[in-house]
Structures are given as C-alpha cells and as structure tokens.
C-alpha cells in the first residue's frame, strides 16, 4: 500500500553508488595480441605494441589479448580497503559463453576477472607502491552453434577505496530486502524486519549526496539497522550448510584447452578470496582439473595444497572426472574411481568418501556397488530434478543397487519449491535458502540442507558478494542459519542423522532413470564407437601384458597403459561422450581417440610378437572371452593360394570358407579361455564342402531359418526351423529402417522427445541386391538403400552353425533433424525386456501403464537387449550403439541422430556399425545372449607364428564373466576382476595354467581385505569380485 519496499530498493541503489571511492581511474592499457593462445601463457617478454582506451570495443572468437598497466597505489585510508574494479566485457551467467580473464599481479596469477567477478581486493601492503597489473583477456566463444565473433567493451577500470561501513550497509540492506521478498506479510518476522530497515534509512541525509554529512548518516543508518537485527529472533530453526563450489565442465561449449584456463582463473579467485574470508570453505571435485593445474600452474597448485592442509579447500568427489554413467562400461567406471581416488590419496592425503555428480545424464544401477567398493559412502546429484514426467519422491534416501548394496543418496533442492530444476550453482540468495527447505521432501528425517554456491558450468565460482551475503543471511531473521561447512562434514552428519532417526527413511530399489536427455545415448556416434573399441582394446592389452610378463619377463607397461586409460576416462566426461559439446571438442576427441587406439594397438602387437615363435604356415588364435564356444574367425593367411586347409592344434581339419575379400572364415570349436591356440595352414586340393544355404527369388533357406524378403529389402518372414516358430510377428516386417522427425523442444543434441514418433517414414528405396558370399559357413547378401539425403549399405550375414543374423552396416548420413532407427516386431509376448548394463542387466517395462513406464520410451543398453518368453526369445545385439526402445513386441535400436546444436555438423558423414538379430531358445541366459554379444564386440584376434596352447584363467560358473586381468597398481601381483550376470547365488572356482600361490580379495581400489585359502568362493547376484593373485 505504501510501496515501502520499492522506496527502499531505490535508496539501496543510491547507497551502492558510494561504496567505492574511485581514486585512480585507469584510462588506457598497453595491449599485445596473444596469437598462439597457448595453455598457461605467462606475461613474460610480451611486446606491447598497441593500446586500448576505456570505452573502446574489442572483439574476436577464441581470441586472447594481453592488457598491461603499471600504477602507484594510493596510501591506506581508515575505514577502507584498497580495491580495483574492472569491467572489460560480457560473461554468460554460467560462464558458458563470453569474456573471461586472468589478472597477473607483478607476474603472478592473482584472480579471475569477468562480468561476475569485477572487484579485486588488494592488500594494504600495496599502498604507495608501483604494481604491474596484466590481464590475459579471452574473448570466449558463442556458446554453441554457428561460430560468431564476440564483441566486448572496456567499460570501466579504476583503483580506489572500498568504504567498509557503506559496503556493510549495502549488503545488510540487500539481504534484508531479499529476505522480505521471501516472507509472507503474515509471517511474524515480516513487519518488524520491514520497520527496522525503514527506520534505519530514515536516518540517511540525502540533502547533499556524496558529502561527508551524507556518508556519516549512512554509517548511522548502518548502526541502527544492525542493532535492530541483533535484537530480533531468528525464527527459522533449519540449518543450511554452505560450501563454495564451481562446476567446471571439462569440455562442453569450449575445448579441453579452454578448461585448463578456466580452472586457473576460477582457482585463483578462490585462493584470493580466502585471504579476506578465512571462514570460506570451497569444494572442487575432478582430479583431472587438479592434474591440469599441477602441470600448467604449479604456483597455484602449491597454494591449493596449502589451503587443503589448512582445511579451507576440499578436494573430493571420487571419480577422475564427473563422468557420464550411461555409456562407459563397468570397468571404465571402476577405473574412474581407481584413478580418481588414487590421485586424491597421493596428492592430498586422503580419498573421497562421497561421489559428487551434480550434472550427469543418468545413473547406472551398478553405481551403488561400485561406489561402496571404492570407499564411497554417499552419493549426491541434482540433475535428476530435470525429469520430464515424474519427480523422485524423496531427496534423502538409501539407493539400493543391482546387487543389493545400498548407498545414502542426497539431492540438493535449491533454488525453490516451484522450480522443477534444482541447481548446483547457487548464488547465495534468500530465495535459495528458503527454497531449499520448501522443496525438500524429507523434512521429518533431516533439518540441515546442503547448498553448493558459486558460478558454474564454465567455472567462475564464488564472488565477494556471495561471501558477504552469507554472513548477512546467517544472522538474518526469517532465514535459515547459513554456516560454512565442508561437504565431507555435511555428509558425515547426514549419516549420523539417518542412522539415529526414528523416522522412516525411504529405500529406492532400482536404477535412477533420468527422464531427459535421451538423445545422449546416440548423438556423436563416433565417440560411442571409439569409447567401446578402446575399452575392449585396453582389456586385451592388459591381459596380454600380464601374459608377456609371466612368459617372457617383459616389464608391465604401467605408465603407457595409464596414459591410454586417462585419454579414455577424460573423454567419458558427461558432455563429451554423450554428444552434447561443440564441434571443436569432437575434433579434439578424434585426435585423442586415434592416439589412444594407435598406442594400444602397437602395445598389443608388441606383446603378441613377444609371445609367439616364428613359424611358417602357423597362425595363433587369441580368445579374450571367459568361455569356450565354437567361434567364427576371419583370418588373413600369408599364403595367397585359392585352396587352403586349416588344422587345429590336434591336426583336426577346421571348417573354412574363402571370402570375396581374399580372407578366410574358419570355425574353431573350443579355443581356451583367456588363452590361445595355434592352427596350421596348408595348401590343398579343393576340399571345401557344399554351401549350406539356398537362395532363390527373395527367399533363403539356411540351417536355421527360412527367410523371405519383400521388394524393398525388408524381412517379411523369419521362420525358425529348429524351434518351429516365426521370429517376426504376424503381418509385420523386420529390419525396417525408420526415419523420424527429431525436433526436441529444448536441447537438440541432448534430447529425444516422445512426440518424435508422430512423423515417421521408412527407407524403402532399394537400389541393389547382391549375393556376395555363398559357401559352407556363411551366406551374405549386400543391399543398398537410400533416403532423400542418405545412403545405407548393408551386408547381411547368415551362418551355418549359429542362429545369429548379422547386419554389417555403413551409412552415409546427410540428414538433419532426423532420427534413424531399425525395427524388428517379434512374435514374443513379455511385459518386461532385459537390457545389458554395467556389471549386469536390468529389466524395464514394455508397456506404458504409468507415467514411470512411458517416461522410459528410450533407454540405454550396452551390448544387447532382449525380449523373451519362458521358452523363447529374441535379442538385438550391437557393436557400438546404446539407444534402445522396446514397446509391446517391437524391438528397436537407435542408429543415428542429426542434431544441429551445439555442433551444427553433428554426425554428418560415414558411419560403420554392426547389429545382430539373435533368436534363441529359453531366456537370454539359456540362449547365451551375453556370450553372443561379447563375441560380436570382441572377436577372436590373430597373430602369425605359434604358441603352446594355454589358458591364463578359467572360471567354473557359466554366469560369471572376467572383466579385467591386470597388474596391481602397486606392482604387487595381478588383479583379477569378475562379476555375476545372471542374478543368482553360486559357487565359483577359478583356475590357471600357472600355479596360484596366493589369493587375496580386495576392493575396487585394490586394497586388500580377505585372504582366500583356495580359489573357490561364493558369489552373490550381480556381485563384483576383485582378487589380488600371485602366480608362479
């Protein structure tokens, strides 16, 4: 009615004008172009050959400019602080675009300066001295999309005094008014608080603004306001634990090299503010960032370590970096923890006790077990608040994982009750402090909440205003108590609260499916493909390196493998591998992936060469799998003869077929597990058998199937002869390429929205059909199809002793805003489908009964998905894809997406991938889907020469898979990791062709736990087991 708050807001704006005394305006700067844009450039030996004046614009894209000035600081002045103010350009709210800079003082990194950090406090020791100020300005990028020049203006720069009393009045008044905005007028605190600030401001004399009289009256007003606030009760019993934070995406709308500079700027700011705010506690996750700083800015790193020792800086978080948890394999997630925890322990004295993953796009059901076996007790995220359809019903709860392991899980709930999206980038506002509690769903269990505050995504972190406002809010009536608290201390106290409460604490049993960003299973397909190939390649190079060490005494290549792993782990960051970064990030990723692949292949070749003896007409076959089954192997004999025969180690003739590319396909019945056997190659008269396949007029007879195609190359019938039933549902077609309009509402590369299915077309333009292979082992049909812009070439393989139908595919992808899927409607009725995930599998509904069901219209699967009845099922395998949807009886695999943002050219070009239809008896366990998918992804590899037949390790339980064989990180013995994938208890015995001298069970960090007298143990459903083994 009286507009009191509006009046006071205007008065506050006037008070703000007198916080600074601008003693030394800086009119111009010497400038120099930083043409190289090198990481960690220093202001040494710079040739300053130009000048920029305040008021001038400067522009560029990814441009670096040096600004320099040397000034004499004024003397100290009672009641003030020396301060600088620098307004040089525009910075995005999350530091996602625009200008940033690093200030060097007398040659040393001092503080980040940007739109959100314009103030720089200087010590009294600078008074009366000449000081060199050098800024390394970065123009920034456009934040995704079309490359755009960024234009900024040098608006203002000065050195002067900060009036501490007026500054105090300003922040106290601002906190008071912001608190009033959050209180209802009926709140008993509202009227006294409004009266207190109004009375205080009535004491300000505005007759001569800026005069001594005016400034003195502001000091009086501050005294009145402070005295009134001290007398008022808090009236808000809830506590907020405040930890400073800056979320730095290791790459996203900027490249890895930019992140290294963002870290330097952000960390310099943190360190500088800690000098004036000793209570300031700061959390930074991601050891990758610390590793960058250690290499690039050792002087900053030394200060960080000092602050860690003093307790102000918390280096935690668990993983090497905040990795995506959908795409990486189980072993990759283990290595994220292993390398992350190892770095934290070795560099800072202790590993993390919590996993800090605020911004990832999904949460594997395997995580609770991985975390608990890596020393993690607590899990924190906020991203799941972005769910499209369903809000998680609790914010503090026990999350039960795939094996039954539970981990305490907590969601940060800022900024407010009515905000669907919660944030990990708090601004220390009254809205957040009240909203944390209003939105929190477990009030009866816990009355202390965590707030992470500081600019983030692109770094930046806490500014001085946030620290000042925290001090004010801590004492402000009507607002929760706001104390600095480390995340470790908060989570420890939360555990104590949960352990001692007599209230119900919810347990969530199942995966934490993120109902958003479903396109990240598919975008930037090459990253997914390279990730999987390198994951599997590293598994091979590690066990072969163990073998080379045992057989030949060759030193295990610890550093080389660690370097390859770190490339892989770095690119598993939650904006790189999901496909949601700018084009330049993927240009860099391709270079890194190529380097990793090349180095790993060289390593494998060296190990193979060391393990085999030269021998003419001998080829060694290497089996990296956990089982022995008949396997098809494509080999390239040195002998170019048209008629060759292949014999196993027992001189038994192996089935063979020469292929059109002059390689040979052979079948071996039982290669040893994690081992090798040598075959012999001999010239021979034509002894090849007759073809097992008969093709005529779009119909094919194989040992397994009767197949029919229509005129556009789609399957119209797949009759399973051995099981006497149709694979495809009646009156449907299989291997149908479906194109959908893909125009999500908000996030192009990230999202697939449910309405994509409203506009569907099929690719039916069949250009050619050709029979390329027809022999005793394999029949291959080549088909070429096209859409309006893209072309699909496919080689469809059938085998004489395998039910797998393999679709080797090449797509020249030129479409935009389109989604490509392949569909198989199958004659299987089941309300749930099974999907391969890390260290196991998960069942998801095939119906849309509830919003929780249809929210999963696109889900993630690794090497396979399966739809089975009790006695029959169909699996769809793949070698590099992750997006599946199975509704009713239709199984679909998402092949390609065509996003236009943030990379306008995303996924354009040639893609090569393979998927397989795999009908089987029984469910996916009876049908050995897991084994078939592994064999598609990690085929038998070969080397010339011979070796004695051997097996490094074998396990007796058919439902146990060996995930890793490597040297222990400390060099003491070898590590064997395995997991159960059927969801059953069982006994396991592992054996080796070497003598096992000792066995010690350890956790995922390779910390010893229990000695085993024998290599026999019991394993629980989906349990991960890790053993340290010594062999002789």
TrEMBL record:
SMART domains: Alpha-mann_mid. Residues 515-593 form the Glycoside hydrolase family 38 central domain. The keyword Iron does not apply. Its EC number is 3.2.1.24. It holds the Pfam family Alpha-mann_mid. One of its GO terms (molecular function) is alpha-mannosidase activity. The lineage of its organism: Bacteria, Bacillati, Bacillota, Bacilli, Bacillales. Keywords: Glycosidase, Hydrolase, Metal-binding. Belongs to the glycosyl hydrolase 38 family. InterPro entries: Gal_mutarotase_sf_dom, GH38_C, Glyco_hydro/deAcase_b/a-brl, Glyco_hydro_38_C, Glyco_hydro_38_cen, Glyco_hydro_38_cen_sf, Glyco_hydro_38_N, Glyco_hydro_38_N_sf. It comes from Listeria monocytogenes serotype 1/2a (strain EGD / Mackaness). The keyword Hydrolase applies. One of its GO terms (biological process) is oligosaccharide catabolic process. This is Alpha-mannosidase.
């Amino acid at each position: 009615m009286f507009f009191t708050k509006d009046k006071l807001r205007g008065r506050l704006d006037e008070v703000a004008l007198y916080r600074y005394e601008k003693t030394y305006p800086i009119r111009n700067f010497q400038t120099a172009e930083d043409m190289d844009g090198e990481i960690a450039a220093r202001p040494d030996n710079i040739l300053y050959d130009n000048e920029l004046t305040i008021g001038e614009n400067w522009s560029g894209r990814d441009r670096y400019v040096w600004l320099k000035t040397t000034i004499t600081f004024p003397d100290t002045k009672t009641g003030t602080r020396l301060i600088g103010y620098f307004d040089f350009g525009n910075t995005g709210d999350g530091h996602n675009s625009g200008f940033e800079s690093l200030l060097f003082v007398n040659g040393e990194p001092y503080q980040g300066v940007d739109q959100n950090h314009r103030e720089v406090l200087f010590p009294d020791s600078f008074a009366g001295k000449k000081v060199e100020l050098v800024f390394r300005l970065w123009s920034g990028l456009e934040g995704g999309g079309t490359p755009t020049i960024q234009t900024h203006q040098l608006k203002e720069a000065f050195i002067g005094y900060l009036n501490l009393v007026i500054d105090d009045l300003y922040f106290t008044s601002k906190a008071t008014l912001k608190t009033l905005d959050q209180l209802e007028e009926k709140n008993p605190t509202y009227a006294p608080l409004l009266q207190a600030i109004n009375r205080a401001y009535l004491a300000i004399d505005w007759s001569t603004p800026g005069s001594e009289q005016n400034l003195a009256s502001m000091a009086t007003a501050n005294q009145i306001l402070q005295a009134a606030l001290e007398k008022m009760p808090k009236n808000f019993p809830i506590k907020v634990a405040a930890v400073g934070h800056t979320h730095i995406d290791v790459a996203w709308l900027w490249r890895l090299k930019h992140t290294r500079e963002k870290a330097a700027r952000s960390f310099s700011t943190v360190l500088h503010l800690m000098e004036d705010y000793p209570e300031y506690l700061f959390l930074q996750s991601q050891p990758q960032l610390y590793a960058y700083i250690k290499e690039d800015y050792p002087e900053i790193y030394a200060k960080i370590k000092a602050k860690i020792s003093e307790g102000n800086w918390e280096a935690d978080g668990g993983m090497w970096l905040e990795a995506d948890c959908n795409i990486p394999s189980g072993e990759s997630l283990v290595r994220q923890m292993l390398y992350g925890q190892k770095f934290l322990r070795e560099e800072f004295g202790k590993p993390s006790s919590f996993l800090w993953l605020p911004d990832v796009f999904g949460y594997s059901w395997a995580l609770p077990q991985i975390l608990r076996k890596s020393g993690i007790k607590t899990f924190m995220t906020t991203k799941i608040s972005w769910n499209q359809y369903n809000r998680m019903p609790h914010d503090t709860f026990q999350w039960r994982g795939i094996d039954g392991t539970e981990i305490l899980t907590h969601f940060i709930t800022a900024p407010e009750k009515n905000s669907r999206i919660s944030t990990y980038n708090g601004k220390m506002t009254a809205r957040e402090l009240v909203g944390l509690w209003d939105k929190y769903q477990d009030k009866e269990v816990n009355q202390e909440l965590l707030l992470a505050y500081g600019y983030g995504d692109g770094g930046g972190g806490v500014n001085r205003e946030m620290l000042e406002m925290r001090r004010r809010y801590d004492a402000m009536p009507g607002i929760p108590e706001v104390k600095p608290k480390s995340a470790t201390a908060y989570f420890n106290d939360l555990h104590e609260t949960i352990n001692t409460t007599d209230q119900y604490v919810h347990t969530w049993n199942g995966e934490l499916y993120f109902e958003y960003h479903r396109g990240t299973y598919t975008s930037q397909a090459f990253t997914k493909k390279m990730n999987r190939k390198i994951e599997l390649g590293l598994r091979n190079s590690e066990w072969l390196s163990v073998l080379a060490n045992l057989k030949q005494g060759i030193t295990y290549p610890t550093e080389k493998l660690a370097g390859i792993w770190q490339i892989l782990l770095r690119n598993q960051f939650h904006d790189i591998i999901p496909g949601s970064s700018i084009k330049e990030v993927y240009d860099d990723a391709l270079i890194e992936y190529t380097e990793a692949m090349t180095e790993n292949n060289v390593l494998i070749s060296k190990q193979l060469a060391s393990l085999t003896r030269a021998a003419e007409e001998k080829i060694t076959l290497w089996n990296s799998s956990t089982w022995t089954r008949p396997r098809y192997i494509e080999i390239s004999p040195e002998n170019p003869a048209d008629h060759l025969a292949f014999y196993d180690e027992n001189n038994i003739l192996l089935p063979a077929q020469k292929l059109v590319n002059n390689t040979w396909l052979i079948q071996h019945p039982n290669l040893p597990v994690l081992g090798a056997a040598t075959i012999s190659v001999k010239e021979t008269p034509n002894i090849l058998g007759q073809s097992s396949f008969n093709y005529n007029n779009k119909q094919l007879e194989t040992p397994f199937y009767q197949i029919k195609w229509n005129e556009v190359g789609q399957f119209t019938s797949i009759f399973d002869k051995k099981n006497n039933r149709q694979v495809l549902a009646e009156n449907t077609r299989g291997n149908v390429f479906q194109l959908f309009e893909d125009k999500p509402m908000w996030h192009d590369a990230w999202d697939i929205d449910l309405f994509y299915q409203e506009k569907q077309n099929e690719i039916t333009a069949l250009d050619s059909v050709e029979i390329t292979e027809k022999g005793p082992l394999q029949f291959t049909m080549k088909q070429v199809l096209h859409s309006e812009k893209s072309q699909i070439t496919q080689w469809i393989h059938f085998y004489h002793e395998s039910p797998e139908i393999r679709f080797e595919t090449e797509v020249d992808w030129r479409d935009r805003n389109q989604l490509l899927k392949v569909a198989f409607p199958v004659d299987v009725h089941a309300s749930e489908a099974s999907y391969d995930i890390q260290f196991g599998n998960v069942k998801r509904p095939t119906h849309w009964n509830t919003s929780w069901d249809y929210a999963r219209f696109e889900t993630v699967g690794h090497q396979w998905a399966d739809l089975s009845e009790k006695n029959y099922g169909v699996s769809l395998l793949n070698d590099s894809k992750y997006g599946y949807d199975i509704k009713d009886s239709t199984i679909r695999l998402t092949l390609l997406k065509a996003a236009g943002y943030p990379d306008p050219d995303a996924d354009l070009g040639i893609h090569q991938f393979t998927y397989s239809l795999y009908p089987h008896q029984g469910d996916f366990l009876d049908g050995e889907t897991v084994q078939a998918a592994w064999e598609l992804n990690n085929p038998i590899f070969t080397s010339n020469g011979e070796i004695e037949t051997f097996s490094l390790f074998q396990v007796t339980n058919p439902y146990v898979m060996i995930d890793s064989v490597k040297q222990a990180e400390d060099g003491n013995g070898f590590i064997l990791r395995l997991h159960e994938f059927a969801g059953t208890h069982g006994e396991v015995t592992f054996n080796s062709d070497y003598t096992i001298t000792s066995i010690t069970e350890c956790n995922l960090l390779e910390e010893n736990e229990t000695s085993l007298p024998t290599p026999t143990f019991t394993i629980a459903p989906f349990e991960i087991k890790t053993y340290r083994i010594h062999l002789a």
